[in-house]
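Work package 3, deliverable 3.1, input record:
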Amino acid sequence: MSEPLVRIAAVGKSFGATRVLDGVDLDVNRGEVVTIIGPSGSGKTTLLRCVNALETYDEGSVRVDGVEVGFRDGEAGRRPRRDRELSRIRAATGMVFQLFYLFPHLTAVENVMLGLRKVRRLGKAEARERALHWLDRVGLASRVDALPSQLSGGQQQRVGIARAVAMDPKVLLLDEITSALDPELVGEVLAVVRRLADDGMTMLVVTHEMGFAREVSDQVAFIDNGRIVQHGDPESVLRNPSGDRLRAFLSRVS
Amino acid sequence: MTGLETVLRALPSLWGGLAVTLEASALSVAFALIGGVLLGTALVFGPWPLRLPIRGLVDLIRGIPVLVLIFFVYYVGPAAGLRLGNFAAAILALSLFSASQVAEITRGAISSVHHGQMEAARAIGLTFPQRLIWVIFPQATRRFLPPWINSVTDTVKGSALISLVGIVDLMLSIQQVIGRTYDPMPFYILGALIYLAINYSLSSASRHLEARFAYVAT
Amino acid sequence: MPYHFNFGLIWRHFDRLGWGLALSLELSVLAAAIGTVLGLAMAIAHVSGGRAVRTAIGAYVECIRNIPLLLLVYLVFYGIPSVVNLQYSAMTSFIVTLSVYYAAYLVEVFRAGLLAVSRGLTDAGKAIGLTAWQRLLYVRLPVMFRIVLPSLSNTFVSLFKDTSVASVLAVPELTYGAQWINNNTFRVIEVYMIVTPMYVATGYAILFLLRQFERRLAIR
């Protein structure tokens, strides 16, 4: 496979007069963990959300496994994808959110089963089996019938991870998944993510957890004002930062 | 167009009915405002021997349909010894209905003013009436106005039911005109437009007032 | 002037009140069901539709909510058959009127509820690949219902109280029963002393039941 699993090329996006993304290039190869770091407002979450079309981009290209995410080729050039097409593309990626966004009216196992039944079209028994398997893998076998309101933040986030991973996505998108957690709950969530990375899951991660970035990532990219300012392996970016902005950012966060 | 002609010729009788509707609504709204605000304030600040019966009364009246309340006052009033004419009975019923709504709105509006305001006012030495007038009520007013305008439009709509106890309001005038002309639809539409005009201008005024009071935080 | 209470006459005709209340409840349930379907459809259309749809629904809501129910009842029962070749019973006419009337209130309730569903939840639905229709059915509507249940309860109790207006069309519900007894026995104080608590108690019973339902949904 010559082309990376996720190929982001010259992506640009403006919000009115503000240039949120300004010519971003980033590749994620199969099995790689790429971490994006940067100050707030730098565009890192917007970039992540372009990969599963939760945000649109104006210029450039975002391809997941060779398929352009935001646009479809037509006779008169490319046009934005419609909701039905997007549903299929989004099923190939999985996302875990900072604020979990578990469906409050469904139990943990039902949360994980929803996508399996309605998008993957699995039967009830098979979906339940898969859901239980993944809830067990994230350490929540004893809480499968709990509602989100009955779970701690860390537990809810692990359900969120199970919900995303159970769909068997090609790439997992993690959007600051520990930022809203109490410090003592962060560890259990990161442990799960580490295990997934070890098992070969391709991941694109936005995070403030520098320790995680250092230990688990294959690549780290520093984004500032909508463009990637520095990019490389964790050692060179985090231990030996070049550039004032990156140095300033790291000293604030570490 | 004879249709239009009929409508135009009937207008004078409708004006009379409209005047009665406006008068009944205005009186009920006025009585309800005074009574309701007093009761609502008592519900927040009063001692429990006062709060409990007021709560009971308000909840009782709010559980009765307006029409039943009107019939109740109209028929039971005289039988129980109250000397009431048609119109007075109708006003009493409408006022009771509206006052119970206003009491609840007042209670909600006052309760929503932050507890700290009362303490700060006490701390600078204002007496209880002063605290109410200068600190609590001005802030509660913003929470009070939109639902209160709502209850005013409810009163105007409720006033249509007094036609069922023989008061010649707009609703009954329309019925009487239809009785003469045998052409219901144009007059029902006209009636709808008139009620719409009254209530829609009230709710527009409410939105306008809401914007004016927006400077009060929260 | 002393009033001699005579409840015996009331009890003799109590079936008019008992069955009247049953009919009031029947009218309420039917109008609530139809009104909910109408109101929900319009709310969904309003939230997802274009300018034309939103203006039309807005006009409908404003017109209905600002006129008295009594006027609408007369308009539907007397007015419409005079211009269109349609015939229907008083009960049918009233149910349709009450449904249309309350649909206008329910549109606002459901609209506010739909807008209150956090965008994050719809994002999560998108992220697992649900289509717009699936997100509406499996995420937005279930969450919306739990949000609006309190408002919905209050609206349904108002609806129940407004069934009293059916009495003007001689539909034999509770208020009509009370007036019948009043006109035929003149025991006006007794009959209203019985009918008033019947309305109040039933209204609070409905609220209580719906609150239980609310609690069940939250815990499941």
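The first strand of chain A starts at residue 6 and ends at 15.
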